[in-house]
Amino acid sequence: MTHSKDSLDSISAKTVSTFDGISADQMYREHILDHYKNPRNQGTLKDALHSHEDNPLCGDEIDMYIEIKDNKIKNISFTSEGCAISQASASMLTEYVKGKDIEKIAALSRESMQELLGIDVTAMRVKCMMLPLKAVKMIVFRQMGKQKENERMIEGEL
Amino acid sequence: MRQDTKITDNVAKEFPLLARKQITFLDSASTSQKPISVITAERRFYETSNANVHRGIYKLSAEATKLYEQAHKKVAALVNCDPEEVIFTRNATESINLVMYSYGRQQLKKERKKDNIVTSMLEHHSNFVPWQQLCAHRQAELRVIDIDSDGNLDMKHAEKLIDDNTKIVAITHVSNALGTIVDIKRIIRLAHKKRAITVIDASQSVPHMKVDFKKLDADFIAFSGHKMLGPTGIGVLVGKKALLNSMQPFLYGGDMISSVTVKETTWNELPWKFEAGTPNIAGAVGLATAVEYMQKVGINKIEQHEEELAQYALKSLKSISDITIIGNPAKRAGIISFNVDKIHPHDIASILDTEDICIRAGHHCCQPLMKKLNLTATCRISFHIYNTKDDIDKLCAGIKKAQQVFK
Predict the structure, then answer these.
(1) In what order do the strands lie in the sheet with A72-81?
(2) Is B10 near chain A, with CB under 8 Å?
(3) Which of A119, A122, B36, B40 is the most exposed place for a label (fewest CB within 10 A)?
């Protein structure tokens, strides 16, 4: 095959990488892999508050079980299926929220999750990281009677 | 180890993105990269020929009209049909929806209640959801042809499902998830025996192999420009003239009319009857250039090249431990789905991404199929003319790296 007349001359030959600065080692740190392989707080809780969340685009699924007493998270567990980021996120988040005030949990954000996990995730993986928090917040908002927040979250705003 | 065939050596240089970015692009089933000739053709159209079509008296409009009509002819020549049978849409999804609205809604009658539409487990949502919804609105039955354990369409099941009450048979030519090449000729014969019409999703076949509309005797085929080295925003519906003439328009408005009075409107001739409003003229010019490019390389060569790559990739992937190839179709296109033990496809894709290797991970818009296979997601690689064996070597090294990370 011969070259087309439209050569690439006009375009700089400089190679550009799509690399966004996050390496495999940075995203899959040892503690992430540890939580993925040995998840804490896994299982179901009888008579607890429950929520189910999924990420239809990738098939990540999570069931969250929470016992609340005196506005504090007394006990929490989860069952889930998904990637290392979502699994590790669930394990670490459940460890973190245990014993904490639900008002404080309601205020957790994407930034807090990033801090909690201690890793940089690429833009496409933020949803995986946020899924467990979404499941926890569903229960917390319901408990706090924050119907509006609940609805907004269902619509994917939070 | 570089074992490129002669075509790919030159070809990769003709795709600016691949020449500039150090990436290994293995997701052409999602969208293909574009050769410089396609990009230039669109730009040149705006720089030198831009005007609306079928409207102006002036020379510039005549020139744009000529280019736009030529694009229909070029696509017609590619798939062997008449230029009047080529309708430009936004993409294959819109093409299939056009058939659903203009043919399906007209043909399926609510009061009959026993009509059925036959589709298959291999379908992309775009050739599944429109028919599912039409059936729901018309109280018709949606029948789904099953697959065997290798991912081939179960032809015996097809024979059983397609009956005298079948109005439409909507089947994909190539599975975008498993790479299965379906014997659509046989399906089309089955459908016609029962006087049902066929809608073939050719999104994964026209960009990679010879598809002959007349020889297949299909009633409709749909495909997207962006998967065949062309621009986004332009797709094609090819339909038999007699059927297209019998159908109501899909969209009403400018250019699709012959005459309008306060009381009534008569429709323009084919294909303009189905191309209401100002079309994607530059996109059509780009698509025509993509067709030229494919023909210059040679459709058979593209098919052969991808077949070689698929064989090489299968062999290479199988040599890595703990890899499961999903499906083992009798005839496979340049698409392979696989999973790696104990590592979620998203994690594989993320780690490959850190090596600038682009693969798809997910359900591939085939949720019924994934459910049937008892999977939530797979890793998928797919090829086009610019891919090389070197890309596959890089992929395999990347997978091994992911296995190291998760060890």
Answers:
(1) A49-55, A60-69, A72-81
(2) yes
(3) A122
For helices A126-144 and A147-154, what crossing angle results, to 10°? 150
Nearest Cα of chain A lies from the Cα of B61 at a distance, in angstroms, of: 26
CA-to-CA distance for B241 and B219, rounded, in angstroms? Answer: 9
Which CATH class, in words, describes the domain spanning B39-295?
Answer: alpha beta
Separation of alpha carbons A111 and A140, rounded Å: 19
A58 vs B376: CB contact, 8 Å cut-off?
A: yes
Write down the domain spans for chain B.
6-30+298-405, 39-295
| Residue from B81, B135, B358, B365 carrying the catalytic annotation | B365
CA distance B148 to chain A (A): 24
Count CB atoms within 10 A of the CB of residue B252.
Answer: 12
User: For B221-258, what is each residue's pLDDT tens digit?
Assistant: 999 999 999 999 999 999 999 999 999 999 999 889 89
Please determine, for the modelled complex, whether the ipTM score is greater than 0.85. no
CA distance B67 to chain A (A): 19
B43 touches chain A (CB under 8 A): no
Partner residue opposite A18 with nearest CB, options B14, B23, B346: B23
Place of tokens 């539409």: B117
**pLDDT tops 80 at residue B359:** yes
Can B379 be counted among the known catalytic residues? no
Q: Read off the pTM.
A: 0.90
pLDDT 10s digits, A72-99: 999 999 999 999 999 999 999 999 999 9
Contact B21 A12 (CB under 8 A): no
Contacts with A, B 240-299, CB within 8 Å: 293, 296-297
- Look at residue B6 and tell me whether its pLDDT is greater than 70: no
* DSSP-assigned letter for residue B250: S
Domains plus CATH for chain A?
24-147 (3.90.1010.10)
Superfamily per CATH, domain B6-30+298-405: Aspartate Aminotransferase, domain 1 (3.90.1150.10)
